[in-house]
Every structure is written in C-alpha cells, then in structure tokens.
Specification:
Elements (H helix, E strand, L loop, with lengths): L1 H23 L4 H39 L1
Helix pairs in contact: 1-2
Length: about 70
Amino acid sequence: MTELARRLEEAVSAIRELTNKLEQGYVRKDVYEAEQRSMARVTSAIEVNVLKIEREADERDQRLQAEK
C-alpha cells in the first residue's frame, strides 16, 4: 500500500508542477494536457489496485470470520 500511496503522491505532485509551469507560461497547453492525461491514467491504475487490495482484504476478513 505504501508503494501505491507514493505513486499517487508523485502523480499529484507532477500535475501541480505542470499547472504552475503552465500558469507561468513555461509549458505549452498541449504538453500540459498530454501530461495531465498521462497522470490520470496512472491515478486510475492506482485506484484499481487499491480497490483490488481492499477486496482481497475483505475476502480475507470473511474467511477469518468463517473460521472462528
């Protein structure tokens, strides 16, 4: 989970940095938008992994409850 959180934080940080550069005129809008789409894909992949981990944890908890 720590790795997922780190990757999500990196994605958010990159988007913030690009937003700042765009506002200051250092990055073309098309470059910014392409990078934003890329970060959205990374974020989506992380969210899918988090949901998978949560589902596996729920299944494990249910098995443990059933064993009691």
